[in-house]
Design goal:
- This protein is an alpha+beta fold and 659 residues long.
- It has 14 helices and 26 strands.
- Strands 5, 12, 18, 19, 20, 21, 22, 23, 24, 25 and 26 form an eleven-stranded antiparallel β-sheet that branches. The chain has a seven-stranded antiparallel β-sheet with strand order 4-8-9-10-17-13-14, with no helix packed on it. The chain has a six-stranded mixed β-sheet with strand order 3-6-7-11-16-15.
- β19 and β20 form a beta hairpin.
- α8 packs across α9 and α11 runs antiparallel to α12.
Amino acid sequence: MSVSFADPEFGSEGKTASAKGESPGPMVESFSFLNVTITDNFWRPRIEINRLTGIRHALKEASESIEDFDIAAGKKQVKHHGRLASDSDVYKIIQGAAYALHHTPDKELEATIDSVIDRIVAAQQPDGYLITYIPKTDSSKRWIDLRKSHELYCAGHLIEAAAAYFEVTGKRKFLDAAIRFADCIDAEFGPGKRQDATGHEEIELALYKLYRITGEKRYLDLTVFFIDERGNPKRMTVEKITPLDQDPYANTPQRWRPPSYMQDHLPVTQQYYAVGHAVCAAYLYSAVTDVSLEKGESKYLPALDSIWNNIVLKKLYITGGIGTRQFHDEGFGSDYLLPNDRAYCETCSGIGFTFWNRRMNLLTGDAKYADLLELTMYNAALAGVSLSGDRFFYTNPLESTGKNKRQAWDDPPCCPTNMVRFLPEIGSTIYGKSDRGIYINQFIGNTGKITVGGQEISLKLETDYPWDGKINLKVDPENPVYLALRIRIPGWAQGELLPGGLYEYLKDENLREGINLKINGERIHKIHMERGYAVIDRRWKNGDRLELELPMNVRLVEGNPRIADAIGKVVIMRGPMVYCLEETDNKSYFSDYSKGYLLHSGFKAEYRGDFLGGVVSIKGEASLPEKKAGIDITAIPYYAWCNREQGQMKVWLPFLENH
């Protein structure tokens, strides 16, 4: 059953969405990274680089923001250093460190984080309030302007970090501080109290996590309150005008911030189009999905479904990045407005988009969300950090004239600190489970233990993905058990990159013939598919093996003709990886680019272990229209660009079919 909805503020075009009251589908239970040991040759080195270099680099760069807690505690008499959101950067580093400690015990790092936590807790006020730029001596400055203040945003990241540190180390000091702050917020906001919505969503995600850890229903209720308060017609949504001498943004350009910027233009249940700041939106949609999962209700489903379709059909970059209006509101632009050189695609928005798609996959049991999570994870999100782990991109364009440079730190540093917490939690994306089933969502080498039907099952996944399409899974139940194992068959392996046709493969090859699925060495000739998963429902016993082989063809992708920057061009892809040409490998191509080089069909993929940390590069040829002879080109994975010298880069490449 489906129904068409229209958003009165943003046009009359309806979106197909699940009808209100309809079951959200087979909800899947999440599987924590705490139950997984990453052994993967692609991700494990990145997690280690993040621990040894990325997190330590971030702690050093955030030293002034850490010092702000000493100032707030009265231990230092100097002026507050950072931006309004600088507290959150410290919290995200702690969250990343917590996840890293799960993978590898690190006494030095743990001692450093314990010391930072001591400094944070010392700054907490007696009633639990903890924002460093609001002085202890003047509580009247609290909660004055939720649109700009980032108070609830910082509180949210504190809570998430404290929850993570408790989960990994068992230490309660930071968690207790988070509970005190949450209680302070609960005393201020809620039905019959202050009714307002924050300008940057995050508190909604965090309160839900706190509820899951403590079991305290007040935190879940407050999560729902902050979600349902958005677009409340009984509340004024126009920003207060702050006098210039009191405006913390007085020395920075003011952004245009209507209610839609912060998804506050309509109640969430009536929002059917992706609008406003892309990071804010991704965090909100993630929290709404959390509540839908927890409460088992479907009132938000029409909006979630419609917004997702609006993005995937009209507002998504081929890299899985979101957000197009970098110099306007860092938000979603109009339909098909996807400029390559001016792409916003903030690293934070890519990471936030993976959060949301992981949750939508759990909510619906549909592999299309895991497909999009994979696309974003390997491309738009991963591009935000250098191979060395200590240089970062704030935005991730799909074309560069050579001016782009990875930075040691950003202002604001939301993206570097988001990246250091994103990488070590990657294990949470791999599995899901139901009452009698296991979902394999991402192909990341690991060992894990999962309990299904009261029985513990050991899993061992081995693969050289994303460079190789062979995935081997060993299933070891304690005793023989009947269960349905669902393994995702990516849309890209079946000839459909994503639903809706915003991007399509140039040639409609029958890739299904290249998909091989075996159980204990015996091929399954007729694969039973449900919602993008191959379903193997059988009696599993110790030592059973599942083998999946996916076709890793080099393929060309074209965009919808309404995308101006994609007309007459293609993107090179292999598996889930988007490729680009970088000037350092293709000096002839870029020196004569204005002459109109056209890409040829026919490519050769080659794994190079000593190149860019180990990648599959793609060799091909391009030529000028009037010449038969061409030049050689080398394409590299998009995430790896700008790790050597600065230079030009292109993802979308001019192409003439049958040239």
